[in-house]
Recover the amino acids of this structure.
C-alpha cells in the first residue's frame, strides 16, 4: 500500500497491475483527492511501496501523462497536472459523439448502453 496514494495492487486480479495503479491514481485525481500540483512518488519509491516492478509503475505514469492527468518535470518529478480538470469534459464530449453515432446506426438505447457496459468491463 502506498502511504501517499493509498494504492493497493491485487496480484490475483484479472486487471493488470499497471492498470490497477493507473486507475487508482486517475480516480484520486478526478475526485479531487489529489489536487493539481501534488507531487507524486518517484517510480521507484512507489514500486517499493506497492510491491511491484518499477516498469509497471512507469507504464502507469506514462499512460496518466498521455491522458494529461499528470506531468513529468524532468528531475523534479511527476506532479498532478491540470488535465484532470479537462478529463470529464473530454469524456462528456466522447459520450455525446457516441450517442449521436448510435442514433445514426439505429441502435436502441439499451443496445448502446450494453456496448458501453461491455467496453467498460473489458
Amino acid at each position: 500500500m502506498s502511504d501517499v496514494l493509498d494504492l493497493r495492487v491485487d496480484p490475483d486480479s484479472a486487471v493488470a497491475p499497471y492498470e490497477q495503479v493507473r486507475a487508482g491514481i486517475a480516480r484520486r485525481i478526478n475526485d479531487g483527492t489529489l489536487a493539481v500540483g501534488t507531487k507524486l512518488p518517484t517510480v521507484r519509491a512507489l514500486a517499493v511501496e506497492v510491491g511491484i516492478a518499477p516498469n509497471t509503475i512507469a507504464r502507469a505514469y506514462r499512460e496518466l501523462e498521455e491522458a494529461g492527468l499528470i506531468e513529468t518535470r524532468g528531475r523534479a518529478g511527476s506532479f498532478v497536472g491540470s488535465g484532470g480538470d479537462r478529463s470529464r469534459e473530454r469524456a462528456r464530449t466522447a459520450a455525446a459523439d457516441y450517442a449521436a453515432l448510435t442514433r445514426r446506426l439505429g441502435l436502441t438505447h439499451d443496445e448502446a448502453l450494453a456496448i458501453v457496459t461491455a467496453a467498460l468491463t473489458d
